[in-house]
Model the fold of this input.
Amino acid sequence: FNLSGPVIPGKLTAIIAASHNRAENVDTVSAILGNGSAFGAEVVRPTVTKSISTGGTWQIRNQNSLSYTVAYAPYSRENQGIGGFVLPERAWNTEGSNWNVEIKQFSSLTGQSIFESRFNIAGNHEDNNPLTNTLRINVLDAFNSGGAQNQSSVSARNYEFSSLYTRPGERYTLK
Done:
């Protein structure tokens, strides 16, 4: 959904949005096991992504405004890495999220000059968890079994600050 419009006419405009998506991709495992028997299976790999965000602009005066954006998006993926010769025991699951907060100000200093500044902080976190942590066995053109051996946890955070002064002229623009 997406809902937007004036909250305080002429002063504050806002938006709120959210989404939820689920996809179920399917693959087939077709392998020959170590004992010579054939193995076949259908594997479903569900992926779920969600998001919620809000933003708005506050008109402080005719020549000054302040804008904001806040967003959060969690996700999950199951049964990753399976298909072809790779057996279901080699799967891993992933869970993570992304988020973002941004504030911007805009000022018209004179009829010919503009000043903008922006602060943004964004982060993400992701965990990969194998279904099993056993020894990995690869038999070329037959099967891959054992653990996925890719357990990890990663987090990141970025900070940005920027400012821009603009003064257009008849022949040149100063930035």
Q: What stands out?
A: The longest strand covers residues 38-61. The mean pLDDT is 91. Strands lie at 2-8, 12-32, 38-61, 64-80, 92-110, 113-130, 137-139, 143-145, 152-168, 173-174.
